[in-house]
Specification:
306 residues, five-stranded parallel beta sheet, 10 helices, 40% helix, globular
């Protein structure tokens, strides 16, 4: 990638925090034999970096980055905000997502933050600032990887309120919204913004998350959800920029994933990166199309993150 990296990066995700330190030196030997020159680290480490609300611990990450730096590797440093620690769910249950069926989730899985949670935004930005203060000046950190594979949706009351604000900015008047969504159908005319409900199973949802009674409502909610996650990406990106204005920043996209407007996202990325996981029976033509799509987002070379 001319003008962005000094060399073509060859490597992948590296998670030495998930096994004993006695193995790390062997990892480095194997990396040298494989001629690997880069590693992506810290993708899912929030729980270890911040074991409690008021405590940070970067000792292990310091050692990992120091080891890779001494070996001369280029480091893609992730922000770890793709999965929240258990203490956050326990103290602030509103950070969790509410699913299509209306069930508010507890601690579990990843990509589990409500995109419009102010609590999540507060602690995510604080963590990223800690990382940026500590590592933004390290010359071996050649790229920052925000969160991980943004996707999914939340249908909580907080999202419902934020959606109404988003719609008001877009349509300006309730009459314009009624016309755009054809709400004469099924006597669905709304007269106040707070009469708008989310397109989930408790409202106009039908068989699956992709099917609702009103296409306009469904499409606008997808757009709103994409904008909300993009806002969180930009929040983290801008924190890093305060400490290194020249930092290269990306997040890993997912080919033909329809949940986000990747063309809109690409304008905010320094480099497009994506994750390619073909199955044994995936047509080569489909994989080729995905590569072409990713390249076309910025009409530039892209990173294959995974």
């Amino acid at each position: 990638m001319a003008g962005k990296f000094k060399r073509i990066l060859y490597g992948g995700d590296y998670n030495p925090n998930q096994w004993g330190r006695e193995i790390w030196s062997e990892d480095m030997r194997i990396f040298r034999d494989a001629r690997i020159n880069s590693a992506t680290v810290n993708v899912f480490s929030w729980a270890k970096l911040q074991p409690s609300e008021d405590e940070y611990n970067f000792s292990e990450l310091d050692d990992i980055i120091d080891m890779l730096s001494k070996e001369g590797y280029d480091i893609v440093l992730a922000t770890s905000t793709g999965a929240m620690p258990a203490w956050m769910f326990k103290k602030y249950p509103e950070v969790a997502r509410t699913d299509y069926q209306g069930r508010h989730h507890k601690f579990g899985h990843r990509h589990n933050a409500c995109p419009n949670s102010l609590v999540f935004q507060k602690y995510a930005s604080a963590l990223v600032e800690q990382l940026a203060v500590r590592y933004a000046s390290n010359p071996h950190v050649v790229c920052w990887h925000i969160s991980n594979e943004y996707g999914g949706e939340c249908y909580c009351e907080n999202c419902e309120k934020a959606f109404r604000v988003w719609l008001k900015k877009k349509y300006k008047t309730i009459d314009a919204l009624n016309k755009a969504w054809n709400l004469e159908f099924w006597s669905h005319t709304v007269y106040e913004w707070d009469e708008i409900v989310l397109p989930n199973a408790l409202g106009d949802g039908m068989d699956t998350e992709q099917n609702t009674a009103f296409a306009g409502l469904s499409v606008d909610y997808r757009r709103f959800n994409s904008d909300g996650m993009l806002g969180n990406f930009k929040m983290e990106r801008d924190v890093i920029r305060r400490y290194n204005k020249d930092a290269l920043i990306t997040t890993n996209l997912m080919g033909t994933y329809k949940g986000l407007d990747y063309f809109k996202w690409a304008k905010e990325l320094d480099i497009v990166s994506w994750d390619n996981y073909p199955g044994y029976n995936t047509p080569w033509s489909y994989t080729a199309m995905c590569h072409d799509l990713m390249r076309g987002l910025k009409d530039e070379p892209f990173m294959l993150m995974e």
